[in-house]
Design goal:
By secondary structure, this protein is α/β, with parallel strands linked by helices. 38% of the residues lie in helices and 8% in strands. The chain has twelve helices and eight strands. The protein has helices at 29-41, 51-66, 70-83, 99-102, 106-111, 120-134, 148-152, 189-202, 213-217, 242-256, 267-274, 312-322, and strands spanning 139-140, 160-164, 220-224, 229-230, 261-265, 276-277, 282-283, 291-295. Residues 1-30, 41-48 and 84-95 have low confidence and may be disordered.
Length: 332
């Protein structure tokens, strides 16, 4: 296949038909029910995407509009999910829409203008095209959740960043938020250890699920370094271009924000604080402007080597309060 010299990464994907919603976010719980019905039932399945996939894309859009209105957001998500059978979503993601259309949170689009049109994205475009055309191995997460971290946590409401490596590669585990799994999916060992540290640090009750969306809605960016993966093949989409995109996200936060708390667990995440931009000759994360908390990775192999007892959750809240910013409610 010839290199797509004139293509950008967005040109790879076919646009889906859109469900038209009100431009204003829901103002009351009662107004959410008709919106949830519209999201779940008004899409046409005449193109490559399923009704459920398109509905979830629109759900992301409306959630982005809600921003940090956690109560309205949570109720909307719950109502819409009641009307969407999650088991009907194709594991192979069906057809793809443009990546640019999947990044729906406006403050991130303004902070990262033209990022997916840069030259490095052409190589990622070629790779993703070959993965999609192959079709024999599912790609996670579903397309509407690729930018879930950015869509769930507006740039202008950012408080903290937790950096993961790449999405979970088991069926229905990945949801576009680092360390998080959807309701109904057994929490992996790393997440179980995170909950243990939360209990020891803040006395939080260990939840019955592993969905961390409420953290994201409060301003915690749950960002993986790589945003897609092949089923059952960890790191299979590493070094294809995603790292440059997510490094740009981190660099943008470092340059345009102040006082953000970076929770770096494990060597892979901690490398971000040591990474030097060769062109600009400065670190990816400016430790003079931001707070960097480091600990071992919460995996079963390393949690006892410095993750347990790091008290990053209480330290994050202490730092936020010192800056006059409301703390995170870590209890799920």
């Amino acid at each position: 296949m010839a290199p797509p010299s004139s293509k950008t990464i967005m040109d790879l994907f076919q646009p889906a038909k859109r469900i038209k919603l009100s431009s204003s976010p829901p103002s009351s719980p009662g107004s959410l029910k008709p919106l949830a019905k519209t999201i779940a039932g008004s899409a046409s399945s005449s193109d490559d995407l399923t009704v459920e996939q398109k509905a979830r894309i629109e759900l992301n859009k409306l959630r982005a509009k809600c921003k940090l209105n956690l109560k309205a957001c949570s109720e909307l998500v719950s109502l819409a999910k009641d009307k969407i059978d999650s088991n009907s979503i194709s594991e192979t993601n069906g057809g793809y829409v443009k990546l640019e259309e999947l990044l729906v949170e406006e403050t991130w689009r303004e902070a990262l203008p033209g990022e997916l049109q840069k030259p490095y994205a052409r190589n990622l475009c070629t790779f993703l095209e070959s993965e999609i055309r192959r079709g024999s191995v599912p790609i996670y997460p579903p397309q509407d959740l690729i930018f879930n971290a950015l869509n769930s946590t507006p740039f202008d409401a950012l408080k903290a960043v937790i950096i993961g490596q790449d999405p979970y590669h088991g069926p229905r585990q990945a949801m576009g938020l680092s360390f998080s799994v959807p309701h109904g999916i057994k929490p992996p060992s790393s997440l179980v250890n995170i909950f243990k540290e939360l209990k020891a640090d803040l006395g939080c009750t260990i939840p019955s699920h592993g969905n961390l969306e409420s953290w994201a809605f409060q301003g915690v960016l749950l960002l993986n370094a790589v945003l897609t993966v092949r089923s059952h093949q960890a790191n299979s989409h590493a070094k294809k271009g995603w790292e440059q995109f997510t490094d740009s996200v981190i660099r943008t936060i470092s340059q345009k924000k102040k006082g953000i708390i970076f929770l770096l667990w494990g060597n892979s995440a901690q490398e971000k604080s040591n990474c030097i931009n060769r062109e600009l000759l400065h670190r990816l994360i400016d430790g003079t402007k931001h707070h960097i908390l480091k600990a071992a990775h919460p995996s079963g192999l390393s949690a006892n080597r410095g993750f347990f007892g790091c008290r990053h959750f209480s330290r994050t809240n202490q730092l936020l309060e010192q800056m006059g910013i409301p703390p995170i409610d870590w209890q799920l």
